[in-house]
Amino acid sequence: MKRNLLLFCLCALSLNSWAGEGLSEKGFFAIRTGLSVPQGDFGSLSANNQNAGLAVKGFHVAAEYGNFLSDYFGLSGTFGIRRHALDLYEVNRAVMGPKLYAQSKWRTSYLLGNLLLKYPVSQAFSVYLKGGAGLTFNTLPQVTTTPSGQTDQKVTAEALAYGWGGGIKSIVENRVGFGLEIFSIHSKPTFKNNNVTVKQDMNALNYSLSISYQFN
User: Mind giving me the DSSP string for 117-182?
Assistant: First the structure.
């Protein structure tokens, strides 16, 4: 955690060093992408954990539109997708019987409404906190006993979601901004298939690089 914080601060100083005059930020549109790291049971690979999601590090992409009502307070909406592959190594070692193969990944789309609290260090550089709530739309991975086996059946589930995080943004010329963000998103969908019900924590920590455009 200390190492991540140090890197975050170094990047902040780097961005601020070449920031231009900038404009007072009001409306903005941002594209974010980066690493998504499973948290808790979702990232557990243990065959002895009945709640293990067996998810490994993946990626996410998100688009966010927002508006600042003052220099410090704003609202935004985010739509994103997230993908995590399965690691079945420990399960296959522990389970007697046919070997299991993952034919698809954990798939999540999410829609969040956010509250933004911003501290403008300068006209071109700011630090912000973000809290959000909304929905996730999730698809259960398909697992078969043959390497090429596939099924047409997709098991999906929606769930409430919430999250929080923060980031930095540097506005450069032509209203374009670059930034870094860390955001933790939490959701627990209930999947139902053939009278079997499975509740799965799908919490993840998203590390993002972003590019944004600000509006007057």
Answer: EEEESSSSEEEEEEEEEEEEEEEPPPEESSTT---S---EEEEEEEEEEEEEEEE-GGGEEEEEEE
